[in-house]
């Protein structure tokens, strides 16, 4: 059976669409191709890599949500372009870009609003990811109270949903909300996706320096 290999767009275009230099993109692409010879990452491989970096907990569900956010064309795989565009936002994007990315993660069904069920699913997945490192012990009541507090701050028109505008306004006006919903989220995401093409030790040093 012939293996279909994916060829990314030119580096010049990626330089325009990301905050990485041409040299950085070349280094990342070489590592990406070494770990993913076909030029794409499927969800199962993504989950396996995630599990390596978060062995203390159950990472599968959270990895699924992150994968879906990176997979911008919803074709079931992450191309090199999708990977570096997402990584660029997480590592070097403006606050607004990071807020928009975080919103898209919480908006699981892509209907333009965040429901309590969606936020509960993401926060539950985050606590599952942390596993035994999560202190104090977290149960369903803790998660429900967490989500209720967030909605009290962010659901400005009290319709039971958080729109993009409400999300952005609440985050701009409350540093605690940003720390709770965005900074912790993006800080945990930057390290792991950056290592997808760098799972070998000598390559990991390159990515930590970017």
Automatic annotation (TrEMBL):
<protein>
    <submittedName>
        <fullName>Kv channel-interacting protein 4 isoform X15</fullName>
    </submittedName>
</protein>
<feature type="domain" description="EF-hand">
    <location>
        <begin position="142"/>
        <end position="177"/>
    </location>
</feature>
<dbReference type="GO" id="GO:0005509">
    <property type="term" value="F:calcium ion binding"/>
</dbReference>
<feature type="domain" description="EF-hand">
    <location>
        <begin position="58"/>
        <end position="93"/>
    </location>
</feature>
<dbReference type="InterPro" id="IPR018247">
    <property type="entry name" value="EF_Hand_1_Ca_BS"/>
</dbReference>
<feature type="domain" description="EF-hand">
    <location>
        <begin position="94"/>
        <end position="129"/>
    </location>
</feature>
<dbReference type="InterPro" id="IPR002048">
    <property type="entry name" value="EF_hand_dom"/>
</dbReference>
<comment type="similarity">
    <text>Belongs to the recoverin family.</text>
</comment>
<keyword id="KW-0106">Calcium</keyword>
<keyword id="KW-0677">Repeat</keyword>
<keyword id="KW-0479">Metal-binding</keyword>
<dbReference type="InterPro" id="IPR011992">
    <property type="entry name" value="EF-hand-dom_pair"/>
</dbReference>
<dbReference type="Pfam" id="PF13499">
    <property type="entry name" value="EF-hand_7"/>
</dbReference>
<dbReference type="InterPro" id="IPR028846">
    <property type="entry name" value="Recoverin"/>
</dbReference>
<dbReference type="Pfam" id="PF13833">
    <property type="entry name" value="EF-hand_8"/>
</dbReference>
């Amino acid at each position: 059976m012939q293996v279909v290999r994916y060829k990314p767009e030119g580096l010049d275009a990626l330089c325009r669409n990301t905050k990485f230099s041409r040299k950085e993109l070349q280094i990342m692409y070489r590592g990406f191709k070494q770990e993913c010879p076909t030029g794409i990452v499927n969800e199962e491989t993504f989950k396996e890599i995630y599990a390596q970096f978060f062995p203390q907990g159950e990472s599968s569900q959270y990895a699924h949500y992150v994968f879906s956010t990176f997979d911008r064309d919803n074709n079931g795989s992450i191309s090199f372009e999708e990977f570096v565009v997402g990584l660029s936002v997480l590592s070097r994007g403006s606050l607004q870009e990071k807020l928009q990315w975080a919103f898209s993660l919480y908006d699981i069904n892509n209907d333009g609003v965040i429901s309590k069920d969606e936020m509960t699913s993401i926060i539950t997945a985050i606590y599952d990811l942390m596993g035994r490192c999560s202190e104090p012990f977290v149960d369903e009541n803790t998660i429900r109270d967490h989500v209720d507090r967030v909605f009290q701050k962010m659901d400005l028109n009290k319709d039971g949903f958080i729109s993009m505008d409400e999300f952005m306004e609440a985050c701009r006006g409350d540093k605690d909300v940003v720390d709770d919903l965005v900074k912790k989220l993006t800080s945990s995401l930057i390290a792991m996706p950056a290592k997808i093409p760098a799972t070998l030790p000598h390559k990991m040093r390159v990515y930590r320096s970017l």
